[in-house]
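For consistency, the fold was encoded as tokens, which produced the following:
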Amino acid sequence: MEFNPSTNTNNLPDADIAISGVYMVISQTASGSWKHRSIEAHDRLMMITKGSLKATIMGKTEIVKTNDILYVPKNTIYQSQSNSAALEHICILYDSIDLPTNNLNINYFYTPGSHNKYIKLFESCQQEYWSKSFGYKLKTKSLLYDILRHLHIEQYVPKNMSKYYHSIKVAIEYINDSYSTEQISIEHLAKMCGITTTHFSRTFKAMYSTTPVKYINNLRLEKACALLTHTSLSIGEISEQCGFSDSSYFSKTFKSAYGQSPANYRNSK
């Protein structure tokens, strides 16, 4: 598969959404015959893990099956009813902020090509929410943003680019899962995808408008900012927990990105 560098995502409409918080993450079961109708007070994102239901959103009715994802915006009339003997699903209720910069549009009904990724994200979101451990609100919101980001990419990457995304998605998922615990090399990522390092790097940059190394470092730095702000961990401990090979490299990378040292960043908060 040869990549055309002139084809990239720079011209795609990017998306953004501001989320004030996650109201509730619940796993629900239902059996027998039932009906539901409501005007949604929160944004609802739901994944069916067993069975099916019949749902109507904004006048559009569909059967939502196992591994499908359902999205209902707040202030929308939502109707659903039983369509199988038993139903199980995970539901995330959250509150988006009405801002002019919000331009995320995802389908009300969606069948993902790879459902295991979403099951893991939904389950992690539920576990984190109910753990009530330190920082759980940030982690839950982070997982929700990750779900929305994947939905946006899969639904809006043009067909002529989707094959390139799928050629490296195993590496993307590995990065997102392991950036803070593993030393990740381009060689290893390319091998996972069965392509050369040059091909991998070109495909990655065309999809994300940055290099794999910068993408990984950005993930690590975002986590470092949260730890600097919300914990009393030492700079060395934060460096280690974010996946940097040593604290000197961490401090240098942090200052290059934010214009100040990790210690000064912490003191400014």
Notes: The beta strands are 19-31, 35-39, 43-50, 53-57, 60-64, 69-72, 77-82, 86-96, 109-110. The chain has nine helices and nine strands.
